[in-house]
Design a protein that fits this description.
Length: 107
């Protein structure tokens, strides 16, 4: 379901520790209104129908519908041009910009 690029798990743990958060991370579809949907990360609770994966000491959850649309998801941590954050790349393209946008963790 989820693959973490090297160093990404530690980067996520650092962000969550700074905020004092110890809850699962939801991989979710986000819509901006003008473009194709993208994937994002948010702190959330586990829902009954969720797919759940423990990885690198972190718990990731995703709805079956989002997993069906996106497929396997690779998460990487990037620091470029003054921005820090995460890039979620689905194995099934959601739009032409997949894997380019940097997202932060919505708390």
């Amino acid at each position: 379901m989820v693959t973490l690029e090297p160093g990404t798990g530690q980067a996520i743990k650092s962000v969550l520790a700074e905020e004092g958060i110890h809850r699962p991370l939801r991989i979710e579809l986000r819509f901006s209104g003008c473009c194709d949907p993208t994937l994002g990360l948010g702190v959330d609770a586990i829902r009954e129908s969720d797919l759940v994966q423990e990885l690198d000491g972190l718990t990731f959850v995703i709805s079956p519908e989002t997993h069906q649309l996106a497929g396997e998801i690779t998460i990487s941590y990037v620091e470029e041009m003054g921005e820090k954050g995460f890039v979620l790349t689905p194995s099934k393209p959601l739009g032409e910009w997949d894997g380019f946008g940097i997202t932060t963790i919505k708390t």
